[in-house]
Amino acid sequence: MNNETGLPEGWEVRRSNTKNLPYYFHPATKDSRWEPPAGTDPELLKKYMAEHHSSKGISASMSSANHEGKIRAAHLLVKHRNSRRPASWRETRITRSEAEAEEIIQGYRERIDAGENLSDLATTESDCSSARKGGDLGFFGHGDMQKEFEDAAFGLKVGEVSKMIKTASGYHLIQRLE
Question: Which are the catalytic amino acids?
Answer without folding.
Answer: 75, 128, 146, 169, 172
